[in-house]
Amino acid sequence: VVEPFEWKFDRDGHSWQPVGLLHGPAIEPMPVEGALRLPLDERYPHPRYPHLARGYLFVELPDLALREWSRIEVTARASAGMKNMGLLFNYDPQSPDRVPFYSFGDRVPLVSDGTLQTYSLSLDPGRVRRPWSGPWTDLGIWFSGEPGAGDTVTDEAWLDLFAVRIVPAAADFAGEPAGVRMVRRGDARQPGPPTLRRAIFQHAPGSLTYRLEIPPAGRLDFGLGVLTATDPVTFLVEIVSGGVEHLLFEEAWSDPDSWAQRSVDLGRFEGETVDLTLRAQAETAGSVAFWATPIVSGTRATDLPNIVLYVIDGGGADYMSLYDYPRPTTPNLERLAAHGAVFDRAHSNSAWTRPSTASFLTSLQHSVLGGLRNGRNPVPPGASTLAERLHAAGYQTALFTTNSNAGRISDLDRGNDWFREAGVENFSTSSDDLHDDFWAWRSAYPGEPFAVHFQTTDVHNPHAPEAPFAGLYIDSARRQQADEWTAATEEIPETETTGIREALELVGADSSAYWTSQRDLHDECLAHQDHEIGRLVERLRATGQWENTLFVVAADHSVAAGSWDYSLLMREPSPEHVYHDDRATPILRSGVSRIPLVVVWPGRIAPGQRFSEPVSMIDLLPTLLDLAGLPAPEILQGRSLAPLLLTEPDWEERPVILDDFEVVAETGELRGRIEVIDGRWGASLEVNPDPDLPAERQRTAPLLLFDLWNDPECLTSLHEERPELAERYRRFLQEQLAAHLTLATRFDERAADSPLTSEQLETLRSLGYIQ
User: Fold this and answer.
1) What is the CA 272 to chain-centroid distance, rounded?
2) C-alpha distance from residue 253 to each of 224, 287, 337 (Å)
3) Angle of helix 758-766 versus helix 723-744 axis, rounded to 10
4) Are 233 and 280 in contact (CB under 8 A)?
5) Residue 526 has pLDDT above 80, yes or no
6) Could you tell me which of 553, 625, 610 has the C-alpha nearest to residue 341?
């Protein structure tokens, strides 16, 4: 039993120390009744946002092992103006980020009404921004607020700290003899990042027994894991057949950092109904044992297809030769597409990874999922993900990504047996590592059907192509010059520029040469990504899995992500056509949301098909379920593309809706955009715009209207020239958003006591959102 560490601040003598930014002052804590007050004012500037202040304090630890601890609980109260609080690890005065700690961790929004609250911050290594090996020597806490927005007495923002507690990992498994959790460990067989695996935990001594029929060529595959090195566990697998007990496996395991992958041959019990027991024994009663994804499999005996969902993070259709880009960037995708179907007008549903991925894995718009809260948007428990639905149907499931925005930030590990969202040495070659992870998973669990979701970062900025693709489109001298310009812009304080264009001017860069270089580097990375997809397909063929596989290639958004406006890779619009803030850029812009969508299923989807109908990623979940013959969820906003793919006549084109939102902390209102692509026309409605943005960063009007046939990059709004059409789309989008917010109550636990009216239900049914 590991006792928690706890500090209380109702008395003097605590060991916590304030610390400032490098070369900056530290806050000056002061005791108040029962707590330690941490004040914020303009003396403690935030390193990135000049209108905010941020403070830091830390405590030394006795060289703990991070893996043995679960979370930090902080009891505090915050004044008006306070914003967020987060974790810091291992004091480091030489930190390159100016913040004197080695790494950041989880964070939470603060309740800024002066009430006493207890906050829970996870110590999951997946939420540690910069992982490390070795001891955990210091715990830090940062907190931010807006000076001058505090109470009227002190006119400053403050946080009163009452207690801090480090909760041991063992506490997460107390109170129940067994259960299922996602557990992170490395692989004992090979180097590489740790993975999350769905695991059964049990306390030793203990056993779990299952009655099942052993399939032909049956085998049991599983991983072994323990909570701590001080509590080794002996794992046993037993079968009772015909009243006779057989011990099939016995091994002691004591490495808390690794999974030990094992397999047991069940062939001699083929066709028998047996009792299979997983047993754990240990010298220390209560020791926690993990059985990672124990699966019994055998000869393929299902009509369900394997599913490969391959999402190229930031993959823009405009830059693929599959979609008539003049360079041969995607020859393998072209060969693959010849065996299936291509959608020419496919769009992501949001402008960037975090909202987009949550939407396409649930077939629910971002506004229905609740929007971003403090930068996070966990998918509501009632909104099942694609992995959850496939797992419930008997699939082995996995997600491999190098973009954490496609992972646990939104709780998208749910439903997966095997889950990896760790980084790689070079994000521009992420597919190499993710494919290795996939084949390691298939080796450990060879049963079918399987469903895997890749989300690579090969073409996501920044671009660092490697040989043999480096040098394909840009020589070393131009690449070095582009890298130098990029490094120079990163040294400019955010307060001195409104974006990359102004930064390039300040450092004296040749804008045209810079963007040409960026396009060339992007294209080299895309060529690498295409090559790796080709290799993956060939290996699936070579291993006999291709003929039973439904293979989909798509993207979560196009190349324009965040503040990088990649429309400039192709052209230099005049200044009046530039969006100075990515929150103002229309999502429906081709460079933001036009994506590839290729669907191949040998023998089931006719080859050589090409569709011009506008579709979106929110159609993905119902399409995959429909093609696999699985039931659709009761609530969804996408629709199945199977009728198109299977050349059935039951299809009617309808507008595509896009949106992404954040929650305004002070009011709880949504702020963002909802948009529509309706044949030739596209409209973007800004909702609750930020009044604090400078005038030059505001949109020209709440509703922008575009002729997508002649202006796919949405550079010229026609809302003044076509006021009647603009008004029609304004009303349409407002009605859509109202329906989305109504639907959101079905997933909001706080609204459980307010059921929908019959009129609201009928509206949602008429829109196709409720089946």
Assistant:
1) 43
2) 7, 12, 47
3) 120
4) yes
5) yes
6) 610
CB 215 within 8 A of CB 270: yes
* Residue the block writes with tokens 């949405």: 714
Cα–Cα distance for residue pair 29/434, rounded to 1 Å: 47
Both tokens of 479, joined, read: 């690449």
Beta bridge partners of 677: 656, 682
- The pTM for the full model equals 0.90
Rounded distance between C-alpha atoms, residue 302 and residue 215, angstroms: 12
What tokens appear for 505 in the block?
A: 């001017």
For the record, the structure tokens of 417 come out as 């047996």
Alpha-carbon gap, residue 83 to 617, rounded angstroms: 33
Beta-carbon-side half-sphere exposure of residue 192 (alpha carbons within 13 Å): 22
With contact defined as beta carbons under 8 Å apart, do 350 and 562 qualify?
Answer: no
Cα(585)–Cα(579) distance, integer angstroms: 6
DSSP-assigned letters across all residues of 544-604: T-GGGEEEEEE-SS-S-BTTB-GGGGT----GGG--SSTTTS-TTSHHHHEE--EEE-TTT
Q: What are phi and psi of 274, to 5 degrees?
A: -130, 165
Residue 573 confidence class, pLDDT cut points 50, 70, 90: very low
Radius of gyration of the chain (CA): 27
| Residues ≥6 apart with Cβ < 8 Å to 482 | 474, 513, 514, 517, 518, 521
- H or E, element range at 346: strand 346-347
Would you say residue 576 has pLDDT above 50?
A: no
Q: Give which of 129, 16, 139, 162 is closest to 69, Cα–Cα.
A: 139
Answer whether residue 685 shows pLDDT above 80: yes
Q: Is the Cβ–Cβ distance between 481 and 508 less than 8 Å?
A: no
CA distance 630 to 385: 14
Region 625-629 average pLDDT: 97
> What value does the mean pLDDT take over residues 615-625?
97
What distances in angstroms separate CA 715 from CA 271, 586, 726, 733, one per listed residue?
66, 10, 16, 21
Q: Taking the CA of residue 695 as centre, how many other CA atoms within 13 Å lie in the half-sphere pointing to its CB?
A: 0
Strand bridging mode 549-554 / 306-312: parallel
Residue 201 has pLDDT above 80, yes or no: yes
Whole-angstrom distance, CA of residue 193 vs CA of residue 407: 15
Mean pLDDT for the stretch of residues 464-491: 92
- 594 vs 592: CA distance, rounded Å: 6
Tokens, residue 101: 């700690």
Per-residue CA distances from 559 to 146, 236, 316, 399, 724 (Å): 34, 51, 5, 22, 33
Other Cβ atoms less than 10 A from the Cβ of 114: the count is 14
Cβ burial, residue 403 (10 Å; 0-12/13-18/19+): buried
- CB burial of 152-173 (b: ≥16 within 10 Å; e: otherwise) equals eeeebbbbbbbbbbbbbbbebb
Write out the two tokens for 257.
């950092």
What per-residue confidence (pLDDT) applies to 760? 63
Q: Could you tell me where the beta strands, DSSP code E, fall in 355-508?
A: 396-401, 418-420, 450-456
Cα(first)–Cα(last) distance of the chain, in Å? 50
Contact 290, 238 (CB under 8 A): no
Q: What pLDDT is stored for residue 209 in this prediction?
A: 97
Q: Please give the DSSP secondary-structure letter assigned to residue 637.
A: S
Residue 564: pLDDT above 50? no
Separation of alpha carbons 748 and 370, rounded Å: 8
Tokens at 82, concatenated: 């306070």
pLDDT at 247 over 50: yes
3-class SS letters over 252-311? EECCCCEEEEEEEECHHHCCCEEEEEEEEECCCCCCEEEEEEEEEECCCCCCCCEEEEEE
State percent of the chain over pLDDT 70. 90
Task: Give the tokens for residue 249.
Answer: 């496996």
